[in-house]
Specification:
single chain; alpha+beta; 6-stranded mixed beta sheet
Length: 204
Protein backbone atom coordinates (compact mmCIF):
# COMPACT_ATOMS: atom_id res chain seq x y z
CA UNK A 1 0.00 0.00 0.00
CA UNK A 2 1.43 3.39 -1.09
CA UNK A 3 1.83 5.94 1.60
CA UNK A 4 -0.51 8.95 1.84
CA UNK A 5 2.49 11.27 1.43
CA UNK A 6 3.40 9.64 -1.87
CA UNK A 7 -0.12 10.07 -3.26
CA UNK A 8 -0.41 13.83 -2.39
CA UNK A 9 0.37 16.34 -5.21
CA UNK A 10 3.23 18.77 -4.68
CA UNK A 11 1.79 22.13 -3.71
CA UNK A 12 4.98 24.25 -3.94
CA UNK A 13 6.96 25.64 -6.89
CA UNK A 14 10.45 24.66 -7.79
CA UNK A 15 13.19 27.28 -7.99
CA UNK A 16 13.21 27.04 -11.80
CA UNK A 17 9.46 27.64 -12.01
CA UNK A 18 9.78 30.63 -9.70
CA UNK A 19 12.56 32.15 -11.81
CA UNK A 20 10.57 31.68 -15.01
CA UNK A 21 7.53 33.32 -13.43
CA UNK A 22 9.55 36.30 -12.22
CA UNK A 23 11.18 36.67 -15.63
CA UNK A 24 7.81 36.72 -17.38
CA UNK A 25 6.44 39.24 -14.90
CA UNK A 26 9.49 41.50 -15.28
CA UNK A 27 9.18 41.36 -19.08
CA UNK A 28 5.52 42.39 -18.95
CA UNK A 29 6.24 45.22 -16.50
CA UNK A 30 9.14 46.55 -18.58
CA UNK A 31 6.97 46.54 -21.70
CA UNK A 32 4.25 48.41 -19.79
CA UNK A 33 6.70 51.01 -18.44
CA UNK A 34 8.24 51.49 -21.90
CA UNK A 35 4.80 52.07 -23.41
CA UNK A 36 3.93 54.55 -20.66
CA UNK A 37 7.15 56.55 -21.17
CA UNK A 38 6.67 56.64 -24.95
CA UNK A 39 3.07 57.74 -24.53
CA UNK A 40 4.15 60.54 -22.20
CA UNK A 41 6.76 61.77 -24.70
CA UNK A 42 4.26 61.76 -27.57
CA UNK A 43 1.71 63.64 -25.45
CA UNK A 44 4.28 66.20 -24.30
CA UNK A 45 5.45 66.73 -27.87
CA UNK A 46 1.85 67.32 -29.02
CA UNK A 47 1.24 69.79 -26.19
CA UNK A 48 4.42 71.74 -26.99
CA UNK A 49 3.59 71.83 -30.70
CA UNK A 50 0.10 73.12 -29.86
CA UNK A 51 1.62 75.80 -27.59
CA UNK A 52 4.10 76.90 -30.26
CA UNK A 53 1.41 76.95 -32.95
CA UNK A 54 -0.91 78.97 -30.72
CA UNK A 55 1.88 81.45 -30.06
CA UNK A 56 2.63 81.81 -33.78
CA UNK A 57 -1.04 82.29 -34.65
CA UNK A 58 -1.22 85.02 -32.01
CA UNK A 59 1.65 86.75 -33.83
CA UNK A 60 -0.10 86.30 -37.18
CA UNK A 61 -3.30 87.87 -35.87
CA UNK A 62 -1.31 90.89 -34.70
CA UNK A 63 0.34 91.20 -38.11
CA UNK A 64 -3.06 91.17 -39.80
CA UNK A 65 -4.00 94.24 -37.76
CA UNK A 66 -0.91 96.28 -38.66
CA UNK A 67 -1.32 99.27 -40.93
CA UNK A 68 -0.82 98.07 -44.50
CA UNK A 69 1.22 101.02 -45.69
CA UNK A 70 3.39 102.14 -42.78
CA UNK A 71 3.72 99.16 -40.46
CA UNK A 72 3.78 96.15 -42.77
CA UNK A 73 6.72 96.48 -42.55
CA UNK A 74 7.84 99.58 -40.66
CA UNK A 75 10.78 101.42 -42.25
CA UNK A 76 11.01 104.06 -39.54
CA UNK A 77 13.31 103.50 -36.57
CA UNK A 78 11.20 102.70 -33.52
CA UNK A 79 12.70 104.54 -30.52
CA UNK A 80 11.70 101.64 -28.29
CA UNK A 81 13.40 99.00 -30.41
CA UNK A 82 16.77 97.56 -29.34
CA UNK A 83 19.73 99.07 -31.14
CA UNK A 84 20.45 95.67 -32.67
CA UNK A 85 17.13 95.78 -34.52
CA UNK A 86 17.03 97.92 -37.63
CA UNK A 87 14.18 98.48 -40.12
CA UNK A 88 12.40 97.03 -41.90
CA UNK A 89 10.63 95.15 -39.13
CA UNK A 90 7.24 94.51 -37.56
CA UNK A 91 6.53 94.94 -33.89
CA UNK A 92 4.54 92.20 -32.13
CA UNK A 93 3.88 91.14 -28.56
CA UNK A 94 4.89 87.62 -27.55
CA UNK A 95 3.34 87.67 -24.09
CA UNK A 96 2.43 90.18 -21.39
CA UNK A 97 6.04 91.05 -20.68
CA UNK A 98 7.77 90.56 -24.04
CA UNK A 99 7.62 92.76 -27.14
CA UNK A 100 9.82 91.94 -30.12
CA UNK A 101 10.71 93.57 -33.42
CA UNK A 102 10.80 90.94 -36.15
CA UNK A 103 13.18 91.88 -38.95
CA UNK A 104 11.78 90.99 -42.34
CA UNK A 105 12.84 90.52 -45.94
CA UNK A 106 10.59 92.90 -47.88
CA UNK A 107 10.14 92.54 -51.65
CA UNK A 108 8.29 95.38 -53.35
CA UNK A 109 5.83 94.87 -56.16
CA UNK A 110 7.34 94.08 -59.54
CA UNK A 111 10.29 92.17 -58.08
CA UNK A 112 10.64 88.43 -57.66
CA UNK A 113 9.13 87.18 -54.42
CA UNK A 114 11.76 85.87 -52.02
CA UNK A 115 9.61 83.95 -49.55
CA UNK A 116 10.33 80.18 -49.63
CA UNK A 117 7.66 77.93 -51.10
CA UNK A 118 8.60 74.97 -48.92
CA UNK A 119 9.65 74.53 -45.31
CA UNK A 120 13.45 74.60 -45.01
CA UNK A 121 15.12 71.67 -43.30
CA UNK A 122 15.81 72.05 -39.59
CA UNK A 123 19.51 72.04 -40.43
CA UNK A 124 19.17 75.11 -42.68
CA UNK A 125 20.35 78.44 -41.30
CA UNK A 126 18.71 81.82 -41.81
CA UNK A 127 21.48 83.03 -44.10
CA UNK A 128 21.25 79.91 -46.28
CA UNK A 129 17.64 80.77 -47.24
CA UNK A 130 18.10 84.54 -47.33
CA UNK A 131 16.24 85.19 -44.08
CA UNK A 132 16.73 87.60 -41.20
CA UNK A 133 17.49 85.91 -37.88
CA UNK A 134 14.97 86.67 -35.12
CA UNK A 135 15.82 84.52 -32.14
CA UNK A 136 13.19 85.27 -29.52
CA UNK A 137 14.80 83.14 -26.83
CA UNK A 138 13.37 80.90 -24.16
CA UNK A 139 9.64 81.36 -23.60
CA UNK A 140 8.15 79.76 -20.46
CA UNK A 141 4.94 77.86 -20.99
CA UNK A 142 3.69 78.21 -17.41
CA UNK A 143 4.41 79.96 -14.15
CA UNK A 144 6.17 76.86 -12.82
CA UNK A 145 9.85 77.50 -12.18
CA UNK A 146 12.84 75.30 -11.41
CA UNK A 147 13.77 71.95 -12.86
CA UNK A 148 10.13 71.01 -13.49
CA UNK A 149 9.47 74.03 -15.72
CA UNK A 150 9.07 73.62 -19.47
CA UNK A 151 9.87 76.21 -22.13
CA UNK A 152 10.39 76.54 -25.85
CA UNK A 153 13.10 78.41 -27.69
CA UNK A 154 11.57 80.28 -30.61
CA UNK A 155 13.17 81.61 -33.80
CA UNK A 156 11.21 83.47 -36.50
CA UNK A 157 12.01 84.21 -40.15
CA UNK A 158 9.64 86.45 -42.08
CA UNK A 159 9.26 87.48 -45.71
CA UNK A 160 6.80 90.10 -46.97
CA UNK A 161 6.32 89.91 -50.73
CA UNK A 162 4.11 92.46 -52.47
CA UNK A 163 2.17 90.84 -55.28
CA UNK A 164 -0.12 92.31 -57.92
CA UNK A 165 -1.91 90.16 -60.42
CA UNK A 166 -5.42 90.03 -61.74
CA UNK A 167 -7.91 92.37 -60.06
CA UNK A 168 -6.00 92.61 -56.79
CA UNK A 169 -3.14 95.07 -56.96
CA UNK A 170 -2.46 95.76 -53.29
CA UNK A 171 -1.75 92.41 -51.71
CA UNK A 172 1.13 91.34 -49.51
CA UNK A 173 2.06 87.70 -49.06
CA UNK A 174 3.56 87.00 -45.66
CA UNK A 175 5.65 83.88 -45.21
CA UNK A 176 6.57 82.98 -41.66
CA UNK A 177 9.02 80.20 -40.86
CA UNK A 178 9.08 79.36 -37.17
CA UNK A 179 11.52 77.06 -35.44
CA UNK A 180 11.22 75.97 -31.85
CA UNK A 181 13.23 73.63 -29.69
CA UNK A 182 12.64 72.02 -26.33
CA UNK A 183 14.27 69.50 -24.05
CA UNK A 184 13.02 65.93 -24.07
CA UNK A 185 14.83 64.69 -21.00
CA UNK A 186 18.43 65.52 -21.91
CA UNK A 187 17.81 65.50 -25.67
CA UNK A 188 17.03 68.72 -27.55
CA UNK A 189 14.21 68.36 -30.08
CA UNK A 190 13.96 70.86 -32.94
CA UNK A 191 10.76 71.45 -34.95
CA UNK A 192 10.35 73.77 -37.95
CA UNK A 193 7.13 74.72 -39.74
CA UNK A 194 5.79 77.33 -42.17
CA UNK A 195 2.74 79.59 -42.29
CA UNK A 196 1.70 81.61 -45.33
CA UNK A 197 -1.13 84.15 -45.50
CA UNK A 198 -2.22 87.16 -47.56
CA UNK A 199 -2.88 90.69 -46.33
CA UNK A 200 -4.84 93.01 -48.62
CA UNK A 201 -4.90 96.77 -48.49
CA UNK A 202 -8.55 96.82 -47.52
CA UNK A 203 -8.54 94.20 -44.75
CA UNK A 204 -10.50 95.25 -41.70
Amino acid sequence: MRSRRARSPLLGLTLVEMMVSLTLMATVMLAFIGTFVQSRRVTESAVLHAAATSLVYGIIEQIKQLDYTTLLPNYETDPFAPTSKTPPYVRVRINQSTVVWIKVVHTTQGNTAQGPTTTPATSASASSVGAQQNYIGAIPLSTVTGTTSQQINLDLWMWIDEIGSGDAQEVKKITLIYTYSYLDGKVERVVRDREVFLRTRFDI
